[in-house]
Amino acid sequence: MVIDKDINEQIKWAQINADVLRSMENPRKAYWITFFICIAMVACAVVAEIYQYQTGLGVTNLNNPHMWGMYISTFVFWIGMSHSGTLLSAILHIIHADWRKPIYRFAEAMTTFSLLTAGFFPLIHLGRVWNFYWVVPYVSSRGIWPNFRSPLSWDAFAISTYLSASMLFLFIGMIPDLAICRDNAKGFKKKLYGALSLGWVGSDRQWRHFRKTYLLMACFLIPLAVSVHSIVSSDFAMSIMPGWHVTSFPPYFVAGALYSGCAAIITLFIMLRYFFRFEEYMTLAIMEKTCKLTFAIAMVWTYLNLIEFAATWYGHDPYAKEVLISKATGPYAWIFWTMIFCGSVVPFALAIQSWRRHMPTMFVVSLLLNLSMYFERWMIVAPTLSMSMEPHQFYIMYASVVQWAIVFGSFGWFGLLFLVFVKVFPSVSMYEVKEMVFHRRRLINEDAETALHRRTGDTQPGLTQPA
Amino acid sequence: MSLKNVFENWSTYRKGAEEGGYHTYEHRWTMAINLDLCIGCNACSTACYAENNLAVVGEKRFAKGQAMHWLRIERYWDEEGKDHPENGASFLPMMCQQCGSATCEPVCPVAATYHTPDGLNAQVYNRCIGSRYCSNNCPFRVRYFNFYSYYESAWPEPLNLQLNPDLTVRDKGVMEKCTFCVQRIRVAKDKAKMENRKLQDGEFVTACAQACPTSAIVFGDTLNPESKVGKLWKQHQVKRGVYKQTKEDPQLRGYRIFEELNVDPSVMYLERVRDTTI
Amino acid sequence: MIGKMKRRDFLKALGLGGTATLAGCDLPTTVTLEEGKEDVVSYLLPDEYVIPGIAVWYASTCTQCAAGCGIHGRVREGRVLKIEGNPEAPINAGKTCQMGQAGLQGHYNPDRITTPMVREGGKLVPTTWEKAQALLSEKVGAKASLNADRVAWFTGTLSGHQRALVSNHLDAIGSKQHFAHEVVNASVWQAVSRDMLDDPMPRIRLDKAKLILSFGADFLGTWVSPVHFAGQYAKFRTAADRGALIQVESKMSMTGGSADLWVAIRPGTEGALALGLANYLVANGVSAAALSAEVRDKIAAHDLQKVAATTGIATAQIERIGKALKSRNPSVVLAGASVEGQAQGYDAVAAIMLLNVLLGNIGTTIEPSGKFPFPQLEAKTGGTRDLLAFAQAVQQKQLDVVFVYGANPVYSAPAALKLDEQLNNVPFKVVLAQFPDETAMHADLVLPVSSYLEDWGTHVAAYQAEQSQIAVQQPLMQKLYGDTRGFGDVMVTLLAMRNAAQWGAFADNYAYMKNVFANMKTSVGQAALSADEFWNNSLQTGMVKVDAPVRKHTVKPVVPNVAASSTDAAYPFYLVPSPRMGLYDGRHANLPWLQESPDQIAKVVWDSWAEMHPSTAEKLGIAHGDVIKVESEHGALEVKAYLVKAIHPDAISIPLGQGHTEYGRYAKGRGVNPLKILKPITDTKTGELAMYATRVKVSKTGKQETIIRLGHSDTQHGRRLARTVSVDVLKRTKGA
C-alpha cells in the first residue's frame, strides 16, 4: 500500500501564492472554447424558456398525471450537489480534518453555484412565473400571505437562507485570499480585490475575529444543509402519493445529496488539478481520502435505499408496493437498475487503491456516480406520478425537447459560473493551505515551527519565509 | 389569524375532522352517485364542458394527456380470465370529491386552494401560480392544469359566444377542477337571500346532475334535513369525518373512494349491482 | 323561471327574424381582458328584454336526433348559453343527452354556411338570396316547366309543420317523391310491429319490466328514444324487485355495458337464437296455442343444439337466458339495428317479436301507442330503403330537381352506389344545409338554414311517450347571421312561388305558424283560449298536448324465415358499423365537444378504430394499435386495431361518424367511414340496406399508430373504485 503525504510540507509560501495566482491569469484557448460552449448551452435554455413562457407549460409534454418532470428532478439534483461544499467546508472543518484545506474552496463555490442553478427551476416550472413572488411573505394590499403549511413555501425559505448563508460563507472564507490577490494585482483588479478584501491586513485581531466568524458560520451552515435537503425531500414526503410518502426521505435525500456532492468534488478535483496543474495541492493522498469519504457515503446511501425498499415491501401500503415493483420492472426499470448499479456497485471502484489513484478512472467513476444520482432523482419523481392511486390516470410522460434544453442549459449555466469563478477568485485557498503546511511541518519538526512564525520586523506578511 | 385568536379558541381548532373539524359550515354540498344507474353515456361530462367553459384541447394535446375534462367517466373491465365481459363494464363518474380534509389544500404554496364554509374545496384561479403540487397530491388525480392558453384555439368565433359569463375562462398556468358548479350555488344563495328564505333542496343542481338521463347523480346539502342526498347518506349509513365506516349493516351499498386515506370525500358512491342469479 | 317582461312583445321582437342587432353592445371577440385588445362595453342601451346578468329560460325542442326531447335554453344578454331538459316534456322529463348538450356548438359552429352559394363554372361561389330566389323561381316556380314526378325531396326524419310544408310543396308541384333517410333507424322494427301488432311504433315500458332481453338494441344510446328509455331504465333498476338486463349482440354497445349478462353472438344469427329461446320456452310449458302451425313448426325446427351451433352460444347459456325469460315477468324483448341490418333482418326481428308474443308482453310491457290525430304532422321517417331508391332513381336519370334537407346521402351512401358521381345526372340540386357537408358540396344551389336554436318549428316524434304532443321549437336568440333563413321561411317562399294566392299571405314561417296555431287550438281542445293565449302557452311549455286515442293491438305473428348462417372463406369476418351516442351517424362529427367526448366503451377520441377480439388478433398476429386494412368486396379502409374482449371473435367493429371529406375543420379528413365499404344487399322483406351483413377480410399494413383514448388502465388494479355487489345483497338491504 502506498501512503502519500497529504501535502508537501516543504512548499514555500510564496510558491503557494504564485501557483494559485497563476491559475487566475488570462485564460488559454481551451478555456475560451469551454466558456463559449457553456454560453451556447445557456442560450439553448433561454430560447426554450422563452418559448415555454410564451406558449405555456404544455410544450414540456407534462400532463395529468405527470405534473412534475425533469424540472423538479433536476432541481433536486442541483440542490443535492450543493451539499458538497457544506460537507467539505463546514463539517470537515469542525472535525479538524485538515486535508480538506486545498479543495474546499472550489467545493464551496460549487455549493453556491449549484444553488444559483437550482434556484431557477422552481421558477421555470411554475405555470405563472411572473407571480412567483407571492411565495414570499410580504405585506400585500390583499392581506394574503403564502400558505405556510406547504413544503414549497418552506422550500422558498430554506433555499434562500441556504443560498445567502453559503454565499456569505464562501465570501468570508475568501477574505484573506482576496487580500493576497489585492497585494499581487495591479490597476483595476487591485481596486476590485481591494474592495472585496474589506481592508484585510492580517492583524492578530482580524485573524481572531475571522476564525470565530468562520467557525460560527460553519456551525450555522451544517444544520442548514441538513434542513434544506430535508425540506426539499418534504416536497415529496409530505404528500400522500405512494412512493413519496416515506419517512426516511429526509435522511435519504441528505445522504444522496452528500453523495452527489462528493462525486462532483471528485470530478472537479480532477479537472482543476489537470488544467491548473495543482498536483502539489490536490494531491493523490487527498484524492484517496475524498474517495474513501465518497465510498462511505455511497454505502450510507445504499443502506438507506435498502431501508426504503424493505419498509415498502414489508409494509401495509399496497399502492406503494406496486409502485416499487413498477420501478424495478416497469417502463422505468432500465433507469432504476442503472441507478442501483452506478450508485451501489460502481463505488466499490473507490475501494481499490490502484484505481483510486488513477485519475482517468476516477473521473469516469465520479461521472457515473453523479449519473446514478441524477437517475435517482428521476426515479423519485416519475414512477410515483405514472402510477399513483387512480389506475385510470396511470400514464407516462416523454419529456420534450424544451425540458431537455432547459436541463441541458442548467449544466451550461453552472459551468459558466464555475469558469468565471476560477478565473476571478482563487480556487485553492491559499491561506488555509499555508496553515496546513504549517501544521504538517510542526508535526515533523519543532524548530520549523519557530522558523515559520513571523518575526517582528518583517516587512510584508506572507511574502518571504526562511526555509 | 392572531395568536390571541388561536389561544382563545384552541379547543375548537384542536378538533379533528372526526369531531366535525373546526369549521362551522353553513352548507355542506354533497353528492351521491348510484353506479347501478350510471350507463356511461357522457351526458354529464358534456354538460360540464358547456357549463364551465371547459376547453376542447384537440387531438394532439389529448394524446399527450393534457385534456381538461373535470368530470370523466372511467370505464373498467372487471373480469379477468373470461373470454367476454359477461357482466358488462363498470362506469365510474369521477370528479373532484370536495374532500373535507383535502390533501390538495395544505400543499399549495400561495394558498390558492382552500376550504369554503360551504364544504367546497375552492380553487382561486387568480392566486394560482401553477406549481402543480395540488394536482400531484390529489389521490383521485382530478385536478387539471392549463398547459396552454387554450382559449386561443378552443373557441374560434362564434363558438366563444357560448361561453358562460358566470365564470372565467382560464389562462395558461392555472389549475382548475370541478367546483360543484359553484357559480350556480352562488346565484341560488343570493336569490334566496334576496327573497329572505332558505335554500330549498332541488332548487338548483350541478350541471352534471341536471343532465344525467337516469338521475344517477344526486346533489344537495346534507345540512338540510329535507335533502335527498342527506337522506341517501343516512340510508346507507355513510358518515363524514371518518376514514373507515362502521355501519350497522356493512352490506349497505354506499361507500366513498379512497376514504381510508382520511381525505373525507363529499361524494358517496352506491355500489354497482349485478344480477348473477340469471 | 321566465322573466317578468311581456312575453308577446319579446316574441314579436324575435319573430321578426330581422336584421336588428343588439344595440349598444360590442360582443367581445376575445375572452380575456389580459389580452388588452378588447374593450368590454357595458350595455348602455340594452334591448327591452335583456337584463344584463340575469338569465332567462325559454322552452324549445332539440333536433340533434329524431327523438324530439324538450329543452330549456338558458339565455343571457341575448345569447343562448346552455341547454337543459324541459322537466315538463313527456319524452325526456328534464334530462338531456350529450348530443343535446352539444347542440350549442352546432349553432355557434365556426364552419356554418352563412350565405347562399351557387355553382358557377364547376365551383360553388357565394351569392345573394335575391339571385338564389330568382334561380329557384326559374327552376321550380309557378312558371317553370316541370315534370312533376321528376322533382323530389330527400330529407332526414321530418315531422310537424316542416313535414306539412314539404308535403304541401310536393303537392303544389304534383310530385309524390319524398325520400326520407336515416342511417340510425328502427325501420324494420317498425315494419314488424306494424305487421304483427298493427302498431308501427308501440310504446315500450321498461319501467314495468323485470327483465329486458335486448338483441343489440342500444336503447340507452342510439335506439329510438334513448333519453326517454334511460328515464324508464332508472325506474327499472330502482324498483323494489330490481330488473335485470340481458344484452345479446356481437359488439358491446353502450347499453351492453350496463348488462347483468352480456352475451356475444355471431353476427346475423340473432333470429336463430330467438327461435331457439322460443323452442325452450315452449318445451318448458309456455303455451304456443295462439300461434299458427307454421310458426310452431319453425320454433320446433330450432332445437337448442342447432341454435348453439349456428350462434356459437353454448346450450347451457341459451337455457340460462330461457330460464330467466320464463321466471321473470313481465319481460320485454327488443331488437336493434344489428338484427335489422341483415339480409333476413325482418325475419329475425319477427322471431324476436314472437318472443314477446309468447311471453305475454304484448299489452304489458309493449303497449299500444296512440294514433296521432294529425297524420300530416306525423313523422315521415325512413331507414336506408329510400337512400337505395334514391340512388337508383338518380342513376337511372329519373330526377331533374332534387331538394335535400336534414340528410347527407353523399356521406352515408355506400361507395358501391357511386352516388357522388351519379348525382351529376340531376341537373338541379338544391341543398338546404347549416354546414358544408359532402352533399352540400355537390349541390348546384346551397341555401343556408338557421340552426334550431334560432328558428321556429314543430316536431312530432315517431316515438311518443304516454302523453302525445306536438313539440314546439322556438328561437332562443336572434339569428347569428343575417343571410341564413329558417327552414320554414324557405318553404314558405318556395310555396309562394308555386301558389302565390294561398301562400303569398304569409310573410314568413312565423306568420304561418301563428296562423296554423290559431287554427289548431280547437282541434286540441283549447278552444276556450284566445289565439294569443294558446300561442303563448305552447311556447311557454314547449309543447301542445294532444289526445291520441290508444290503438288496439291485433297480434298477427309472422312466420320468421330465419336465415341459416353463412361462411365466406374470402371474407371471414363480419363488419359491424356501430353508431354511438355522440357522433351518431356522422352528423355530429363537426361538434368539438362530441369529438372530445370518448366513445363510451372504447374510450377513444377524435379518431376511428377497428375493434377485434384479442383471440382473433392473436391468430392474425395483430397488436393493439397496428394499422390494419379492412377490406370488403366494395372497398378497403385503413384503420387502427383496438383489441377488446367485448366483441364476438368473428366480428370487426368500426364506429360510424368519422371519415368526412368535408364538413368543417373538426370533421374533415379524420378517421374512416365504414358505410363506404358496405355491400349493397338489402333485407328481402323491407328493402332496407343490410348494414350489418357486409363481410370483410383483415390484413396488416405494417404501420403502428397510437390510439388516443381517455384513461390508461382498463382494470382497477384491485383498487375497488367502482365496486360491484350482487343483487341478493341489494334485495336484502333494500338499498335502492
Which secondary structure elements does this structure contain, and how are they paired or packed?
The complex is a heterotrimer of chains A (467), B (278) and C (736).
Chain A: H1 13-22, H2 29-55, H3 70-81, H4 83-94, H5 104-118, H6 120-124, H7 151-184, H8 188-196, H9 204-237, H10 249-275, H11 284-313, H12 318-329, H13 333-345, H14 353-356, H15 359-386, H16 401-424, H17 430-444, H18 446-452
Chain B: H1 3-8, H2 10-13, E1 29-34, H3 43-51, H4 59-63, E2 72-76, E3 90-94, E4 113-115, E5 121-123, H5 133-137, E6 144-145, H6 151-154, E7 175-176, H7 182-194, H8 207-211, E8 217-221, H9 228-235, E9 254-255, E10 267-270, E11 272-274
Parallel strand pairs in B: 1-10
Antiparallel strand pairs in B: 1-8, 2-3, 4-5, 6-7, 9-10
Chain C: H1 7-15, E1 56-61, E2 70-76, E3 79-85, H2 98-101, H3 103-107, E4 117-120, E5 123-126, H4 129-140, E6 151-155, H5 160-173, E7 177-180, H6 187-197, E8 203-204, E9 211-215, H7 226-238, E10 244-249, E11 261-264, H8 270-283, H9 293-301, H10 304-311, H11 315-327, E12 331-335, H12 337-340, H13 345-358, E13 366-367, H14 385-395, E14 401-405, H15 409-412, H16 419-422, E15 428-433, E16 445-448, E17 457-459, E18 469-473, H17 487-498, H18 500-503, H19 509-520, H20 531-541, E19 543-545, E20 573-578, H21 592-596, E21 610-612, H22 614-620, E22 626-632, E23 635-643, E24 651-655, E25 695-704, E26 724-726, H23 727-733
Parallel strand pairs in C: 6-7, 6-14, 9-10, 9-12, 10-11, 14-15, 15-16, 20-24, 21-23
Antiparallel strand pairs in C: 1-2, 2-3, 4-5, 4-16, 8-13, 17-18, 18-19, 20-25, 22-23, 22-25
CATH class type of chain A? Mainly Alpha
Question: Radius of gyration of chain A, rounded?
Answer: 24 Å
The total beta strand count of chain C reads 26
Under CATH, the topology of chain A is which?
Answer: Formate dehydrogenase/DMSO reductase fold
The CATH superfamily of chain A is known as Formate dehydrogenase/DMSO reductase domain
User: Major sheet of chain C: order of its strands?
Assistant: 5-4-16-15-14-6-7
CATH architecture of the largest domain in chain C: 3-Layer(aba) Sandwich
- The outline of chain C comes out as globular
Would you tell me which CATH topology of the largest domain in chain C applies?
Dimethylsulfoxide Reductase, domain 2
- Helix count of chain C? 23
Low-confidence stretches of chain C: 1-33
* Beta-strand content bin of chain A: under 5%
Q: What fraction, in percent, of the residue positions of chain A are helical?
A: 55-70%
Q: What does the largest sheet of chain C look like?
A: 7 strands, mixed
Mean pLDDT rating of chain C: 91
Q: How many separate domains make up the residues of chain C? A: 4
| N-to-C span of chain A | 31 Å
Oligomer: heterotrimer
